[in-house]
Amino acid sequence: MEINFIAIYDNTAEAKFLFVSESVTDILGYLPEELIGKGGYCLTHPEERQALTIVHQGNVKDERMSCICTYQNQHKDGHYVVCDVVIHYCYDVLICAHFAVTSSDCVKHKIRISSADHVFIVQPDKSIQLAGAWHTSQESMTKLLAETNPWDANKAVIAKREPRFSLFINRYTNLSIIVFATQMCEYLVGSNQMDLIGESLFDYVDRRDRSSVQKLIESAKSNNLINRVRFNWKRRDNGQLVALEAVLSCTFDGLVFVARLN
Question: Where is each PAS domain found (predicted)?
Fold first, then answer.
């Protein structure tokens, strides 16, 4: 599997690191604790920051469930590493998986960008190439990206956000054990985030949907796809079913799962 790591950024204009998985050391040379609290732009190439700010603004304004942006991250020793960054907008955070790109002709790179809703590649001249928006033309996307930024003077998001929650799932077990959950899961599906940790995702998937969810998880794990899945979540507190739409992406450190009401 490609070398990759997970990062969680806050929803401010600075996109500060809230969490970084240990595999960041394999790609960028940093220990996770060296990055926590720093703005995410600190690792980007200075000449690419204007383009990345435009993509960042668009992700926040549109609350994109899955987007890929290909750009350079600076290694601790000073050189730059090209990464495909899979970005999931999740209510008050951005959850990202960073994949080191060894070649633009890499099969896994091509598979990954074909499965995202939007793909932006920062070109050598620092312009943005739209590489994969299924329903949006380059012209309309350029206009959308040019709109005003979504933060106020205090760098906080202005507009009301759609409730979403995220899970990290152990990719090395067929039980899909939950190892991390964000707090919005209690609001949407009635489960405290701490209560979910250690549980199997399938304990909450309606039995009629388990087979399809399992197949999509295995596909994400084996093919590095970003998969979209719709299923009914069975609440533990009252037994009611909640229709969810979620996206799945796979990293060395686990599966990233981001869900909203369907």
Answer: 1-63, 178-224
